[in-house]
Each structure stands twice: as C-alpha cells, then as structure tokens.
Amino acid sequence: MKSFVIDSRDIFLSLDGSSLNLDRLKFKGKDIWDAGCHASVSIYDYLTRKEYSSGEHKTELLEKKNKKGSLCIKWKFSRAPFIVSQVFAAVEKDAVSCETSVSVQGGKYRTIRVSFNYPLPSRTKFPGSDWHVWSASSDAPWRLDKTNHLNISYDHIWEHTSIPAVTVYDEKNDIGQTFVKPFDVPAPGLSFRITNVGDFNVEDERSVSIVNDYLGCGNGRDAKISLKMKFHRGDWRDGLGWLCSEYKEYFEPYDESIWEYSGGMICGNITMGEDKIKFLKKAGMTWFEIHEFFPCYGYYMPEEKQWYSLNKTNEMHRKDRPPYLVTHERVEKYIEMLKRNGIASFLYWQTCEIYTELAKKFGDSLLKNRDGSIIKAFPGTYGMNFALETPWGQYVKGQAVKLMERFSEADGIFVDNLCYKWFDFSRDDGISSADNLPCYKTTFGFHKLLGEVAAFLRKRGKFTFANGPINVEVQRHIDGFVAETDPKLLGYLGYMSVFKPLGIIIYSSESLMEALMNCLRYGADIGVFSGMNSEDVKTYKKYLPLLKKFKGRRWCLEPHALKLHGGAEGNIFASEEKGYLVSVVPGCVPIAVKAGVEVCVKDADRIKSVDSCVPGGAPERIKFGRERGKIILDVPAKKVPALLVLK
After folding, report:
1. Residues 332/363, Cβ–Cβ less than 8 Å
2. Is the pTM of the predicted complex or chain greater than 0.70?
3. Which of 74, 124, 229, 396 can pair with 63 through a Cys bridge, CB separation 3.0 to 4.6 Å?
4. Which of 378, 340, 97, 392 has the alpha carbon at shortest distance from 227?
C-alpha cells in the first residue's frame, strides 16, 4: 500500500500505508534510522491485561487526510477495541508534532497506557558517532554506548526528570533530537525509556519510548496524548535552549528584581534574636523563611488575638522545642526587625496538608485512597485536594491572601511541599485513572491555585520562593527555588531555574561538601544550618565569595559552549557583569594533573581576561589561548574546584 508522507523544509516522515507505522525519518536529506526500522504505537489495557502494538499486531486504516505539512489518520487494531486518531504536523522547519487520541468501542471503562516507540538514531548513518542521552536529571548526560536500559520518570521526587523531555545527541556529527511532551498538555503519568541492547540474536532493540500512563478511556472518555519532536545541534544545551524559548513563560522570571533576594536563606521562627540575625547577615544570608508562627498546618492566618505556635500541634517537634505565644503584632515586629537588618521575609504557606482537628471543617476535600480511606500526610495531618474547585482550595488561597494583606511589609510567601503528589479517588479530573477507576492527580491543582496567588502577589510587588517543585509545570508561577536536605536535588531543580534564583538548605555536616560542589555546578546559593561546627563555618566562608558571583546569572545555552577535560565537570553561565562564569569541579574520575577548559561562545573574541577564583584564595589572573573562536586554558588539579571569571 502507498506510503503517506510529511515533507517539510528539513524533515521528511514516511508512514507505511499497510502497517501504519512510521518507517522512515530524514533530517536535511539524511536518514536518521536504519532501513527496516520503524516507529510504533503500543497500548496496554489494564482491564484485560493485554498489550497491543502496531509493530506486531495487524491494523486497519479507517480514515486519512494527507496535506502538505500534515497527515491525519484514524485506525484501529483488528482484534482490539481501540480506535486511534493521529495528527502529524510540521510545526517548524525542524520540528514535528503528533496529537493522538485513543477511544474504545463499547466495553467497560478502563485504565490504559499508551507508548510511542521510536528507533534510536543509527550509528551506521553517522560514522564515528558518540551518542549521548540527556534529560533534566542530576545524573545526566548518559553515554548511549554504556546504556542498556534507562527509565527516566517525570513527576517523581527522586531519580527523575523535572522537564518532560529527553534528548539524544551526537556531538561529533553535531546533530540532536529532542522529544517533549508539550507543557500545557496534562499527563498523569509519563516516562522515557531508553533501550540500547544488541545481545547477539537473543535481544536486539535500540529505541526511545515515550510512555503515557494512568489514562482513563471508555464510557465516552478519550485518552489524549501529545508529543513534539525537534532536531537541533549536537548538544543538550541546544535542546534545553529550544525548550526555554518554546515555553518561555515557564523559565523566565516574571520580574528580574527577584534576584535582589537571591543568596543564602534562613529557615527559622520568630524566637531567633536580633543578634543572631545580624551575625547571619554578615555570613551572607539574604532572606528568611518565617516558619512556625501559625498554630497548625492549614491555618496560616489566625483570627484570634493570640495563639500558640505550631509546636503545640506538630507531632514531630513538640518534644524538641516548647510552643510559645504568638500575636499578629509580634509577627509584624519581627518582619520589621528583619527589614531593619537587610533580611527579606517570606511567610510560610502550603496547600497540601491539614491538621487532623481542622480537617473536620473540610471533610469533602480530604484525599481518599482506592478503598475510600483518608490519605495521611505529615505526622498529625491529612492530605488535601487543593484544586480551586474544592472548598479547601478556595480556603487555602484565601489564607495566602490574608497573610499578605495583614503582613504587608513581608516580601512574599514561601511555598512548601510542591513535591507532593497523590491520586485522589474521591474526584475525577477527566484525564487520570488507576486500577480502572477515574481519579484526580493532585499536582494538576497547583496550576490554577498558584497562578491566582502569584497574580495577587505580583500586583503588590511580592514574590514566591518554593521548596522542591516536582516538575516544570508545577513551578510555572514560582519566582525562586529551594532544595531541601539532599544536594542531589539541585540537579533536578537546576534545569528549571536556568534563569531564576536557586538555593539549598541542608541539615548535616556530611552533606556540606557535596552541596557546595553542586552549588558551583548549578549556580546555586547555600543557607546556614543548625548544628554547624567551627570547621563547617570555615568551609562555608571560603566558598561564599564564589557563590555570591552567581547573583543574576543565566545559564549559557549556546551549543558546545563548554568542554571540560581531564576528569573535570562544571557549567557555564552568563554573568550579570556581561561576562561568563565557568565552574570547574572534580568529577567521577580524579583529576590527575590538570583540567582542560574550552569555552566556545559567540562573543569569545570579546573576552580579554580570565580570573581563577578558588575557595579561600584571592582571584588569580591566568593565561589562556584562542583557537577558532574558542577560549582554551588549563586549571591545575590542585586549583580545582574553581570558578573562572571571563570578562
């Protein structure tokens, strides 16, 4: 049967008219896949526990419309109830989108999983290739030839990607390919699976699968999935740069003045004295997360004249610190004291948890498990559905508004626990499904709620910092980020905060050096922590001058902007002073003699000097060479870690 074709300026796609699989992909006239390879669609039915694949099962074409630059097809599996509608379209000269809808003919409602399976680019088509895989993860990038099976989950807290995209790229042949789920299309479950196995004739598969899970289908509901594929230069920076341009509102700060607050944070309560605040200001702290001033989780703006602090109801801390009396005036005076000492104040607020006693007022907003039981959260609290459509969602939004109306001198709100996610089986969001039951993905509730709270704050010149946003969609309306406890979290939050402030707060000396190295990698600040010993303080002070240089920094996303050799790792940033910052830190392989540094940016010819800044030392002017628009230099192993300042 005749093939169906999309032929745009740079991309050629061919769909086999018999199997309905994509059987050929060309970019700028060059085949990306080997002959005989094809892209397929597979559907797993949780109701019948059967899986169907267009690569293995017979399909039947129902409709087609083939126009220049677009292809619409409707088809079904011959022995399955699913009907699949797909629209392929060339949306840019080097990008293609695929909108897919799956419906079921008769039968019961069920949960399904839909996967798009694409062959990895052919190594035989790109001689001498060195393919890598990148996603927004602390472990990325990965060498493809060292990868057998790699599962990258979106929307997880640990070992995940914070951006719904994966990039495969070949630096030697300077070609890259990014697969992304459009940010504005909700996805209750998403992962990217890389398989690169050539095990004689036992197993031979080289593919990237975009897996959409927990989708409801049936009883009039269709499952809708969206995917976009983009070709670009052979560097993950070019792929991320395209994402930042395509979804600008998710990455760019609403107001650049948020950088005035960047720096080390303090997490504390209103019992911390002014002498301690002055000491912390000298230590480089710039803003304070005011915690524990409220009586319980869920009640952040008390109407009473006085009340006991959170420690009265907090099961985790009531034995550690005694509760104390709080009044509106006491909070107000504390904010004034912070301002007097040059420390910004951000009032604690969160949406996800409610003190068990307070929960009696919002019973219809409590999160429910499959069996109808209430979902427990932090000790002494229940989880809440904070969608604006719920009574709790409206109430907790009102709490944020009242906080800022009453304490108008505060600089903004600190939003905690943007890393929480549940399925709420007492509600239906019209998309999500698990165990063949409709449900509500709670992270979807953040979008409208945070959008309205942010709009209220911005009209008043106020900002938000947030703890650990779980993904790029959740953080859209957040101005600055904080990673809590684990330095590895900077590797996930960093790729979302390429143009926004980022910081970390840790709670133990054991994490300090790893946190400092990751601060250099990702352009982050670090806060002081309780229990710091004298050695910790000395180490902290050595690194602080380096970290202060990150104020106003933006990640440099030019393709091939930075190459590091000799076992070094690091990053490159455009600095606020119209130069560049290059961090050089030890990698997994020890640096034997020196770390080689190559900087290749458009305005490399404008660079006149390079200073090397090391912890605890004075800046040192170092020699560098030029080669074909590159800046080339070496850093001795004993001078690593370092922050290079290029001007």
Report:
1. no
2. yes
3. 74
4. 97
